[in-house]
Amino acid sequence: MLMRTDPFRELDRFAQQVLGTATPGTWSKPAAMPMDAYRAGNEFVVCFDLPGVDPSAIEVDIERNVLTVKAERRPLPGGDDVQMQVTERPLGVFSRQLFLGDTLDTDHISADYSAGVLTVRIPVAEKAKPRRIEIAGTREDRKEIQA
């Protein structure tokens, strides 16, 4: 139902740490956004970790069957007298794309953001839900069954 993209994401994250290229402006690829995805009843739920991101800096788009989540963590406001002592939290744009299966209802996606976690809910399409099929037969077959 859901497919993850970019199999080299962990390799990129490792390279950023080793080469020290994780500072803003020196790495052109958007930083990774950890996620969990699971099915709960008749919907798929995807949770993205976005701590410290303002809700107005989050975009969720769907085009065809591709769900795109973009978020931007901006630097803390400060004046000329602020000197950073430690900067370990990555700043900049974070992006993630998921390819959704045809069995999901992309017209009724919902999203909410709470405690630094963006939760996207995607219902299973009616056509993909299990349903019972009635068996039809000829009139003679029906009479034999009733007798």
Automatic annotation (TrEMBL):
Residues 26-138 form the SHSP domain. InterPro entries: A-crystallin/Hsp20_dom, HSP20-like_chaperone, Small_HSP. Pfam families: HSP20 (PF00011). Belongs to the small heat shock protein (HSP20) family. This is HSP20 family protein. It comes from Actinophytocola algeriensis.
